[in-house]
Each structure stands twice: as structure tokens, then as C-alpha cells.
Amino acid sequence: MRQNKKIAITGGIGSGKSAVSQILASKGYFVLDCDQITKQLYQKQRTTEQIATNFGNQFVVDGKVDTKKLGAYIFADKSRVEKLNAIMHPLIFDELDRQINESGQKIVFVQIPLLFETGMQNQFDDVWLVVADEQTRISRVVVRDNLDVEQIKNRIKNQMDDEKKSKFVHTIIKNNGTLAELECAVDECIKRLSV
Fold it and tell me: Is pLDDT at 1 greater than 60 in this prediction?
């Protein structure tokens, strides 16, 4: 079997990981999204049972995890975040490995928000860190997810800061500008890929 080149796309909430992934997909690259994998897992019985057992039945509605309600509860306490991660990360990474192996692609991009927090950075050949200033991130998430500023700040607080992450990466994509500027930055990163 041919070895895939695996590139992680990471960054804090609202940094623009999804925009980078969409740009790559529009250029024909194979992109996996750990958030999408997580959403799929939250609809599976095995996952809902674990959430109900560990956090309570109030977070499972009609056989699916109520992610908004669970998120508000989880991100208010770091120990809850760690408990949820211990449940979800093995499931996510098993599914991720399966999809990468089945892809048949030479280069696989994986959008993974909590790459460093999970210690998975060594599973990738390269890491692209997407960064944006905090106010820009908050503004994006307010519009995108309809969360209040305090909830967003709690989520930011529970993620490793960009300065620490930047010490472990070779590629940093700054995303404080327009979508066209971001696309130019992504194009530059693509040019540096050696396959």
C-alpha cells in the first residue's frame, strides 16, 4: 500500500481552519474534517451511551448528542473537557485512520482543532497552523455558531495558545484578512509541498 503524506490543519476556534480546508478541497485535495467525524460519531449509539453514562441523559436527545448543550456544560470546566476527550479521541482517531487508509490519496489533509492538546502532532508529516487575532476569532464564532462571547472565551481558554503551538510547526498561515488573502497564503504553502 502506498504511504500517504498526512498534513494536519490546526488552529484555535475561529482561526479559519475550515476556510483553509475549503480552499484545499476546491483545488482538488482530499481533506478530512475531525469535527465532521465527531458529529457523525455523536449520532451513533455507542457514543450516546458513553455520553449519557459519563455526563447524564440530559445531553442525549432523540438518540443524538445535543452538542450545544453538552458544549456549554463541558467547556465551563477543564476536567470535563479532559473527560470528554478521553471518551471521544480514541473513537475519532480510529475513524480518521480508517478513512485515510481507504482514501488512496497521495496527500491527505486533516482538519484537526485539538491536534496538540491530543498529542497527535507526531502522527502527521507536516502541520499547518492557522492563526488569527482573538477579537477576529470571537467575531467569527459569534456569527457562525451563535454563541455568546463568554462561551467562546471559555473555549479559547481551554485550547493551547497559538504562541505555544507555533513552536512545534513549520507552516503558519495568518488569517486576519480577506478570503482572497487567505487563498494566496494557502497557495504559497502548496508550492512548498514536496511529494
Answer: no
Whole-model pTM? Answer: 0.81
Q: Which domain holds residue 170?
A: 5-190
Q: Quick one: pLDDT at residue 87?
A: 93
The 3-class secondary structure across 66-95, one letter per residue, is CHHHHHHHHCCCHHHHHHHHHHHHHHHHHH
**Measuring CA to CA, which residue among 35, 9, 3 is closest to residue 190?**
9
Which residues pair with residue 7 across a beta bridge? 109, 126
Q: Which CATH number belongs to the domain containing residue 22 in this structure?
A: 3.40.50.300
Q: Is residue 195 part of a domain?
A: no
Count of alpha carbons within 13 Å of 180, Cβ hemisphere only?
0
- 132-158 pLDDT, tens digit per residue, is 998 999 999 988 888 889 888 888 887
Structural domains counted in the chain: 1
Cα(176)–Cα(165) distance, rounded to whole angstroms? 18
- Structural domain includes residue 37: yes
